[in-house]
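Quick note —
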Amino acid sequence: MPHPQINNTDLDIPRDISTEIFISNWEIYRKIIENDNMSHRDGYGKLRDILINEMSRPFSFTDLACGDAYYSSKVLQQTKAEKYIGIDVSEQALTLAKKEFAGSGIETRFERADFINFDRITEPPVDVIWVGFSLHHLDTPDKLRFMKKVKKALSNDGVFIIYEPILLEGENLRLYFERFKQTFYEHWRGLSKEESESLLEHVRESEKPETTENWINLGKDAGFTKAEKVFSDKTGLYEMFKYGAG
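Predicted structure written out below.
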């Protein structure tokens, strides 16, 4: 199998508050993963269960905003995944992702691009599209436009799965940030003072979560016939949603 390269597909990768922390300093997010501050372990465990139970045939997996693919690589080796495309804005993260998949036996491809432009990279139909902790950076109309593109790209029995922060009913962005800060100070570990300040600025300035109902309705409005919540993390900040194309 040829050694996978990192392709620079999107020359217009944005550099703003929502992406800068990940482009310039991947180590911050790596610490978040290692300390399981955002319940990656349980979330990817749920993803593994879905793929094992619902994808009984060989399938392709498109990993949007894939980061270093640490958990994706572990999960997919327990499934029938045969092809993997990882897309991310951070070249540093993609370099690490290549190493995570080394020797996996899965055909891999890595593209440096903004995840919203996945349709410039993938060739439909795609069996599974996964995005975690990234879709909430978009405004609501842009979320819907993105999800319509996903629906169009999926195979007839394909699935779209997201793992994102949520607003509680009646909660606005200011109250969400206060709830996030409370969870952050009570449960998060492993970040320096400077890294914590950078992370909190990122959350305050760039996160635009939806309520559970809105995440489900966005899927329905995008044309998915099935849209459901399948997992909530222990902090109540994050939920996983699954959308069926068929």
